[in-house]
Inverse folding.
């Protein structure tokens, strides 16, 4: 896989972690693991490159859920709904992954744009 694409995936997920003050050493380490795993995967299957950024975000989301909790939280619904997350759409991870509110189904931001 093209290294630039992998670095772009890493930068976008890192930006969204930082946007929620969650770019902690543990989160960054989960991010590095996900980037190296998905990079290996895309080397085996080059057509998978378009899915990598979204898949890395999903991997980090899963890793954080087990430790610090939900990331990223939806900030758009406010009092209208109990605390809930955003998820990556399309579910396959790409192409052009965006964060979608799991309650309203609204697109909140592109990956990297929180
Ligand atoms: Zn919401």
């Amino acid at each position: 896989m093209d290294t630039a694409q992998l670095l772009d995936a890493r930068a976008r997920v890192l930006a969204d972690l930082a946007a929620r003050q969650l770019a902690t050493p543990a989160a960054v380490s989960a991010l590095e693991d996900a980037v190296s795993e998905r990079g290996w995967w895309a080397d085996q299957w080059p057509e998978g490159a378009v899915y990598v950024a979204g898949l890395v975000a999903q991997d980090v989301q899963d890793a954080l859920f087990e430790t610090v909790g939900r990331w990223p939280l939806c900030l758009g619904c406010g009092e209208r709904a109990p605390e809930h997350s955003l998820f990556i759409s399309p579910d396959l991870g790409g192409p052009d992954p965006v964060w979608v509110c799991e309650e309203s189904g609204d697109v909140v931001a592109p990956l990297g744009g929180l």
